[in-house]
Write a structure and sequence with these properties.
The complex is a heterodimer of chains A (about 550) and B (about 150). Chain A has about 550 residues and is of the alpha+beta class. Chain A is built from 12 helices and 16 strands. Chain A starts with a helix and ends in a 7-residue tail after the last strand. Chain B has 6 helices and 5 strands, in the order βαβαβαβαβαα. Chain B has a 5-stranded parallel sheet with strand order 2-1-3-4-5, sandwiched between helices. In chain B, helix 2 packs parallel to helix 3. The longest helix of chain B has about 30 residues. The chains are: A alpha+beta (about 550), B alpha/beta (about 150). Chains A and B meet through helix 6 and helix 8 of A and helix 1 and helix 4 of B.
Chain lengths: ~550, ~150
């Protein structure tokens, strides 16, 4: 239970660290890239709107300059007397509209402010302008472009007026600009679904119609003073709570401000789309990381648990072996302690029997009873002796044991032992044992165990119908014994693990997976080697190499 | 069977006493000593055909050491090791040092007698061989008999 909690803890910690390490860079990368991108995008939009405002204001300036220029030219090239004739004025008006266009009417005003000649759709002849504010402006500056106003005709419009000094007579030529033409010019700057372009005067009053709401000549909520020299870009939140960008560019020597507005969100749609895509990518990336992390961690921890379990099993085996060794020592000790008294009892009994032969005992009535009792004692000493000698034998098996070993003899014995088992499965055991092998100092029983294991494995690998080929030969300072079968072979990935304890390809319950590892240990302890060669479908060969250790002479 | 001289070395007094008694009853000239040191001391003055030697004797000399000494003093004397202990290695070591055989306690008396007789046979055969070799030598070089007398005097 402790282990399980430890594993759960470990798993949690690995998951936490992995997620932390992968999320922090991923998310910070995403956020950074997004904000950099957004900033760039925004800069671009501002740039664009600024450029549009500047271009448009240039166009408007040019428009006004052209209109002013032609009006000035007309005033300069004609005399009051000529223009006062409405036919002549009509012709001049025709020329102006033909060359520049955009004029609605043209009027001649004398120095007293009276409209003395007029060409246009309205009946404005004879009107007195001397009290109009623009009249004074023209009088003082010689040229005047008005703000938009209602005037006599009750329609928003603006005028251009120029003054001419002809000898000692002063007169004014005044033209009204076609608001449709003018507003058309501005409307060209209204782009997108929400973009607007308009002009406000210094006081913040609209000089042109708006695209959506807001009356001409009404007060706008923009404060013109915040717009500086050249072209200025501002961001404002409008009544609906949407962010809008405004680019303002001064016109007409700072009396008009051309404003181009743009809904930020409209321009940013693509950015928002990118943002959505990025979020989807990051979120799915995170999900993928979480799933992978949990999965791999689970796998790792499970492997760890398995390794742990195997180690525990191995430990249990070791403890078991240790226990057996300790038991062996104890058995030896106990046997020794019991054997001595047993020896004394046996000898004493024997002595008594010897004495019973003497003459004096022959007459005794109980002679036969004595004899019987003594024989019984001997019988039981014998019984105890068998037990203690068995214990000594058990103890002896625990200890390494060197003796003269004839490898071929061991092989013959082992094969004989297994032959009937092989024959039952229709397996032939062939042997090719070189007769000139030296006798070596080794452990007969342990070697037998190794060969028994290898041959049993070979038979089990074949299953039914096949051949086990056993050979022995001397190669330099080694005796090589190989056990070859024509079974199915060992898959490559299992070959490296074949000698691992508890590794078995046999069915569950059929093999302990200890046979080869124990054999390996035995051979290794003898200073030898054990190798395997296998090809799938062709069979397996195990080769045991034993060093030739010449026994000491007795 | 010819009578022969056996020395029994064992620290277990009861065992020692009884086995000596039983051997003597079978007309074997048996002597018992309780330790290796006593055995070696005794053997300085007397010849024995076979020594029955316990390997494990607490306190004093170990059976193997005693065996080594005996083989030095009287190489022809056969030694049978007797052990109550599991250590077969010790017995094997003993065999390598020239012990005749080893027996594990408790031993059957008949078996013991057979082993002793066999050891005596071997010793006898060995002595016989040496004796006949000497006789052969003396026959071939009669002058040597004087060398031998001189050796014995020294």
């Amino acid at each position: 239970m402790m282990k399980r909690r430890m594993y759960a803890n470990l798993q949690r910690r690995i998951i936490f660290i992995t997620l932390l390490v992968s999320f922090i860079p991923l998310i910070s990368l995403g956020v950074t890239i997004y904000y950099q991108f957004a900033q760039m995008y925004r800069d671009k939009i501002e740039e664009q709107i600024k450029y549009r405002a500047r271009a448009q204001s240039n166009a408007i300036e040019l428009f006004l300059k052209e209109r002013t220029a032609i009006l000035l030219a007309m005033a300069d090239t004609h005399t009051f007397d000529y223009l006062v004739d409405e036919g002549n004025l009509e012709r001049v008006f025709q020329i102006m509209n033909h060359r520049a266009g955009g004029f609605i009417d043209l009027g001649l005003i004398d120095s007293s402010g009276r409209h003395v000649a007029y060409v246009g759709p309205y009946n404005l002849l004879g009107r007195d302008y001397s009290s109009q504010p623009w009249f004074d402006e023209v009088e003082s500056k010689g040229l005047y472009i008005s703000d938009v106003f209602m005037g006599y005709r009750r329609i928003p419009h603006f005028i251009i007026a120029v003054q001419r000094q002809e000898n000692n007579r002063r007169w004014i030529l005044r033209a009204t600009i076609d608001s449709d033409v003018f507003e058309g010019l501005i409307r060209a700057a209204q782009v997108g679904k929400t973009g607007d372009a308009f002009i406000i005067n210094k006081g913040g009053f609209y000089q042109t119609h708006l695209r959506f709401d807001g009356e001409i000549l009404s007060k706008s909520n923009l404060d013109p003073t915040v717009f500086g020299e050249g072209t200025t870009v501002l961001e404002k939140v409008n009544r609906e709570g949407k962010k809008e960008l405004y680019a303002g560019s001064w016109l007409k020597k700072h009396s008009w401000l051309l404003v181009i507005s743009q809904d930020v969100s409209e321009e940013m749609t693509r950015l928002f789309k990118t943002k959505r895509i990025e979020i989807v990518i990051i979120v799915s990336g995170c999900l993928l990381i979480i799933l992978t992390t949990i999965f791999t961690t689970h796998l790792i921890v499970r492997r760890l648990g398995m390794a742990d379990r195997k180690m525990n099993e191995l430990n249990v085996q070791l403890v078991h072996a240790d226990k057996l060794a300790a038991l062996g020592k104890m058995a030896a000790g106990v046997a020794h302690e019991i054997n001595n008294p047993l020896a004394v009892i046996a000898e004493k009994t024997g002595w008594m029997e010897d004495l019973l032969i003497e003459e004096e005992f022959q007459k005794s009535r109980h002679l036969e009873e004595y004899r019987k009792s003594l024989r019984k004692i001997e019988e039981h000493v014998e019984r105890a002796r068998k037990v203690t000698h068995g214990m000594l034998g058990f103890a002896r098996r625990m200890e390494p044991h060197l003796e003269d070993v004839d490898i071929n003899e061991v092989l013959h014995e082992t094969i004989t032992f297994l032959e009937s088992y092989a024959r039952l499965n229709n397996i032939t055991i062939e042997r090719d044992l070189k007769p000139d092998l030296p006798i070596i100092a080794s452990d007969h029983a342990q070697l037998q165990q190794v060969f028994l294991n290898l041959i049993t494995n070979a038979i089990d690998a074949i299953g039914k119908d096949g051949l086990v080929y056993i050979s022995s030969q001397r190669i330099n300072s080694e005796i090589a014994v190989s056990v070859k079968d024509n079974g199915p072979g060992i898959p490559r990935e299992y070959q490296a693990r074949a000698f691992e304890p508890f590794f078995t390809t046999k069915e569950r319950g059929k093999g302990t997976g200890l046979g080869l590892s124990v054999s390996y240990n035995i051979v290794q302890n003898m200073g030898g080697t054990i190798t395997l060669e296998s090809e799938e479908g062709k069979g397996t060969t195990f080769t045991v190499g034993l060093p030739v250790v010449v026994p000491e002479k007795k | 069977m010819d009578t022969f001289r056996v020395l029994v070395v064992d620290d277990e007094a009861d065992f020692l006493e009884t086995i000596v008694n039983r051997l003597q009853k079978r007309k074997v000239e048996a002597t018992g000593v309780p330790s290796g040191e006593a055995a070696l001391e005794l053997m300085k003055g007397r010849l024995f055909d076979v020594v029955l030697l316990d390997i494990k004797m607490p306190g004093g000399m170990d059976g193997i050491e005693v065996l080594r000494e005996i083989k030095k003093m009287q190489p022809l004397t056969e030694v049978i090791l007797l052990t109550g202990h599991a250590s077969v290695e010790t017995s094997i070591e003993g065999l390598k040092l020239g012990a005749f055989d080893y027996l594990i306690k408790p031993v059957k008396f008949d078996e013991l007698l057979e082993k002793l007789a066999a050891a005596f046979e071997k010793k006898n055969a060995q002595e016989q061989k040496i004796r006949s070799a000497k006789i052969q030598e003396l026959i071939r070089f009669p002058g040597r008999i004087f060398d031998q007398e001189r050796e014995e005097k020294e």
